[in-house]
Write a structure and sequence with these properties.
A 7-stranded mixed β-sheet has the order 3-4-5-6-2-1-7. A 6-stranded mixed β-sheet has the order 9-10-8-11-12-13, with helices on both faces. Strand 12, helix 12 and strand 13 form a beta-alpha-beta unit. Helix content is about 45%, strand content about 20%. The protein is built from 16 helices and 13 strands. By secondary structure, the protein is of the alpha/beta class. Helix 5 crosses helix 8.
Length: about 450
């Protein structure tokens, strides 16, 4: 399914760096590169070059040298896209990369669309759709666990599992069709019971992956950790301490934080998506009210809440509202400002919320932070988040497809229990087979494919 035209883009970031790479892929990629490449100490063109060789020379357009480069020639099908591919390694200045790319475009290529190189790898059968999605996950990985999960998917661990399940379903479909076509030689006696056992096995495999979705999501994105508290309790100061930089504005003026602020931070062995929020209090300020509403919405969606209480002030109705919000949620209470004379104590808090862990900290003096790190690791690192779980999925598209397939298999079990004819089994088995196929890119809608690849950067 090779594409007719040849595409090009800058494959490295648009920043000043030592090396920049302009990638070209398509039928005419070597010819196009040859038009603008002048080799040193070679009298032959790139079109005569062997595959996977590197050539030293300059990029020249209209007689003017643009840059000194190394050009890698890679011939199909042993390339990322399974098309002839050329990578021009030039100096990494933004201007020089743009000028080299412009020369490539003038020589006959067109600008690649976002993700088009990976899209061609998918269309040409080098990777399936789940592996293509893993490419973007590798690029966006924020922690080593997310990276390992994405690399495993890129290797094809999910693809292998889905294909095995689909093969089992196809075997059952083929048997039913064959038996219905040739009842004299293929008996369906006792088959519903055998099919029921097989369906239960397949559903158990799907359930295992679905049960681990939340685990995989946290592993990929980090633990969504929302910081709640009254105004001036020290929420933003805590964020700055955990970030080890002045990321949030800190003042003595109540209500300074009016919107949510999200940052990624590594704490020990876990990764947190920290969300600083507006202080919870009764107010007539319209903008502040919106910020407080957002804070409560974020708390509803949180994996972990850090409730920051001010030890230098008595508890009030705002603290009571926060305590109600964290009821039934995974939360750690931080009694902040331990460097000041205490008015609120651990005992007072424990009497109100006995089921929550309470730590005494000082964001100003940066004390108690190591205890917080230990507490979070105990909550999420001690078996609750299985970092090395290979069967987990992290992609919501995969989750929805598995849920739909599981629903179809549940219908098969209902049909068996109701004593329905075997051709009813085949309809729902085929539906499960097709839905699972969308995970790896078989029978997937074109708009879904376009949406996936639109998330990629230009040179990938």
């Amino acid at each position: 399914m090779g594409q007719a035209d040849t595409i090009a883009a800058i494959a490295t970031g648009m920043t000043q760096s030592g090396i920049g790479i302009i990638r070209i892929s398509g039928t005419d990629s070597i010819l196009i590169a040859d038009r603008i490449f002048k080799p040193y100490r070679e009298n032959r063109s790139l079109q005569q070059a062997k595959s996977h060789t590197i050539h030293y020379g300059t990029i020249v357009e209209q007689g003017a040298v643009i840059d000194e480069v190394l050009v890698a020639v890679m011939r199909a099908p042993a390339t990322y896209t399974r098309e002839d591919t050329v990578e021009i390694n030039c100096h990494g200045g933004v201007l020089v990369m743009k000028k080299v790319l412009a020369a490539v475009i003038h020589a006959g290529a067109r600008m690649a669309e976002p993700g088009e190189f990976t899209k061609r790898a998918f269309l040409n059968g080098r990777i399936d759709l789940s592996q293509a999605e893993a490419v973007i996950d590798v690029i966006h990985a924020q922690n080593e666990f997310a990276l390992q999960s994405s690399v495993n998917q890129l290797k094809g661990t999910l693809s292998v599992k889905i294909r095995q399940l689909r093969e089992q379903l196809l075997d059952e479909i083929a048997f039913i069709e064959a038996a219905l076509d040739d009842p004299e030689h293929i008996s369906l006696e006792g088959y519903p019971e055998r099919l029921s056992a097989h369906v239960k096995t397949i559903r158990a495999a799907l359930k295992k992956s679905l049960d681990l979705f939340e685990n995989g999501r946290i592993r990929k994105e980090g633990i969504k950790t929302v910081i709640l508290g009254r105004p001036n309790a020290g929420k933003s100061s805590l964020l700055n301490v955990l970030m080890q930089e002045d990321r949030a504005i800190v003042t003595e003026i109540a209500g300074t934080t009016r919107d949510t602020l999200e940052e990624q931070v590594r704490l020990g062995t876990v990764s947190l998506r920290l969300v600083d929020t507006a202080g919870i209090r009764s107010t007539e300020d319209v903008v502040e009210k919106i910020g407080i509403k957002k804070a409560m919405e974020q708390a509803e969606q949180a994996d972990l809440i850090l409730y920051v209480a001010d030890s230098s002030e008595p508890l009030d109705e705002n603290d009571a509202e926060i305590m109600q919000a964290i009821a039934g949620k995974q939360a750690i209470v931080l009694l902040n400002k331990s460097d000041l004379e205490p008015v609120t104590t651990e005992e007072m808090l424990r009497a109100r919320i006995p089921d929550k862990q309470i730590l005494t900290v000082s964001a100003k003096e940066e004390t108690g932070i190591s205890q917080l790190e230990t507490a979070i690791e105990a909550l999420f690192g001690d078996g609750k988040i299985r970092w090395n779980e290979a069967d987990g999925i992290t992609n919501i598209r995969h989750k929805l497809a598995m849920e739909e397939a599981d629903g179809s298999l549940a219908e098969v079990e209902n049909s068996i229990a109701a004593g329905m004819p075997e051709d009813f089994f085949s309809i729902d088995l085929m539906r499960a087979y097709e839905v699972l196929g969308t995970i790896v890119g078989e029978r997937v809608e074109e708009d879904v494919v376009e949406q996936i690849f639109s998330k990629f950067c230009m040179g990938k």
